[in-house]
Specification:
The structure holds 2 protein chains of 2 kinds.
Chain A lengths: L1 H13 L3 H7 L4 H10 L16 H15 L1 H21 L2 H12 L5 E4 L15 E5 L2 E12 L6 E8 L2 E8 L5 E3 L13 E12 L3 E2 L5 H35 L3 E2 L2 E2 L4 H29 L5 H26 L1 H4 L5 H9 L8 H14 L7
Parallel strand pairs in A: 1-4
Antiparallel strand pairs in A: 2-3, 3-7, 4-5, 5-8, 6-7, 9-10
Chain B lengths: L1 E5 L2 E3 L21 E3 L1 H17 L2 E8 L4 H10 L3 E6 L6 H15 L3 E5 L10 H9 L2 E12 L2 E8 L2 E8 L2 E5 L11 H9 L2 E5 L31 H10 L5
Parallel strand pairs in B: 1-4, 1-6, 4-5, 5-11, 6-10, 7-10
Antiparallel strand pairs in B: 2-3, 7-8, 8-9
Helix pairs in contact in B: 2-5, 3-4
The chains are: A alpha+beta, B alpha/beta.
Amino acid sequence: MLQAMVREFTDAEIRPVAAQIDEEEKIPDGLIKKIGELGLLGTSFPEKYGGGGFGGVGYCLAQEEITRACNSTAAFIGAHQSIGANAIYIGGSEELKMKYLPALCAGEKIAAFALTEAEAGSDAFNLKTEAKLTNGKWILNGEKIWITNAGIADLFSVFARTDKGITGFVVEKDFGGISIGPKEKKMGIKGSVTNTISFDNVEVPEENIIGREGRGFIVAMKTLEAGRLGIGAASLGAAKEMLELSAKYAAQRKQFNQFISNFQAIQFMLAEMSTNIYAMESILYRAAEKYDNGEDISTDAAIVKLFCSEAVTKVTDHALQIHGGMGFSRELPLERYYRDARILRIFEGTTEIQKMIIGKKAVKQKGKWKV
Amino acid sequence: MKIVVCVSHVPDTATKIVVGSDNKTIDANGVTYVLNPYDEIAVEEALKTKEAQGGDVVVVSVGPDNNKESIRKALAMGADSGVLLKDDNYRDSVGVAKALAEEIKAQDAQIVFFGKQSVDYDNSIVGQLTAEMLGYNCVSVAVDLKLDGEKITAEREIEGGREVIETSLPAVITCQKGLNEPRYAALKGIMAAKRKTIEEKDAAVSENSVEILEMKKPAPKEPGKIVGTDSSAVPELVRLLKEEAKVI
């Protein structure tokens, strides 16, 4: 029923404005409000925190449906829910969760996840933002870049260096001393805003620490694992849409006096797209179920992120090729999916970082296959 | 106030319908069933009535076990409880209305909402029949509804216009597109619906007064005729439109 509802909502409310979101580089405020009211900003979280109670599997189903129409909207929801708010859910104390999650689930407040810095992208451990405890307040200084949702967020899960190592904090926009940079000009997912954030002596209440001091890096990594499943779901949704559009187009486009769907050249591309979708769907929901069972998914999530994001870029490429010149035209949405797909191999850990995670595990286990 | 909304579980309008091998039913294989679209409007109106006046919204459906999916959808939208009047066989409009009327009487509902028709059999009559059996007032094809205490002011869609009527509770309202914009089932509603109860009982037995003899698809459309591709074809085209098609 969740999937059917999200599909109905997406078709009626998101699909008609997807091109506009891309062109105007903005998700309409009214749409964000509706998404919040429906509960799609807290799908995975338990009901006691105001969430939908649908876990990782439910979250992935919803993201898949939304990405069928608009990757920008899915990226906004993902940055808010699966990393921004999820850092609090995964690492925070019960008090911190009760303080922030209900408003985040209801969409009354929007979250962002702030880990990346200029010199700490893939090498996140090298981050320089600092927090010092002075008179019962954490004083935060530093700068974060490439922060999805920063321009529209009310609060941030920020990772900073303290005496005991990397530590996470919930920082509200109104704490003072926070400035948000201009919107980045991007190739794709243009409707999702990305900005820099700088912290200039921001005073953060002591109790806004996420978990224990010095444990922030683990929280950040665990959070990103969940985020990577979301990337898998976004990849899968876009790929399914591409297959459907391509098969329909091939069945009505005539060349050499026949429908191009009669040609093996086209059928082979549709076959590769289908095979990728089958594999993506299988590994994604296998990992999502493990996540819901509370199992360690560090390798699973890396595999899902790596495979699905690579696969969707191939699938969108095939789709564009099947559509020929029409696929290149901005009259059809193909080129938007093509541009939007490219980020999936970069954010929340590049393809190369996923390979490092998976490769290290293989070495550690002496090649014995076990996830 | 007790509010009842009657729903049916129908093939999705996007589904390709295939007539079954008995030539009397549709082949359910691969058919997706959904809450009847007009009933979504009825559920919305029931919920709005509850929000304005207070009360309980009970969803009632006659049919097989699968109808629970549509009852569940209405519960997810916000209805309070459901009743499935179990019946695995075809039942005509009179039979459905009889079963519903008995349940509505037992529920002592003051206002009952229906979709103006179900998009499967399209009889557009169950609401009115039920009202008659209960002795309730009836507003069919409602596009606007105002409830003030016992008094109802409603607008009905009629040929070429709208009719404004007044009546009073208890009443049956059959809902037409435009009456409201049905809400989506929010995630909280979907989760809550799992915990709401659907009571099951056998539908009151009655003999069908209508028998389906045969079901068949409309004859395929005849292919169009091309009378020419330039202006010299116009006289012939006009002649055909006048004499054969008789449209001008």
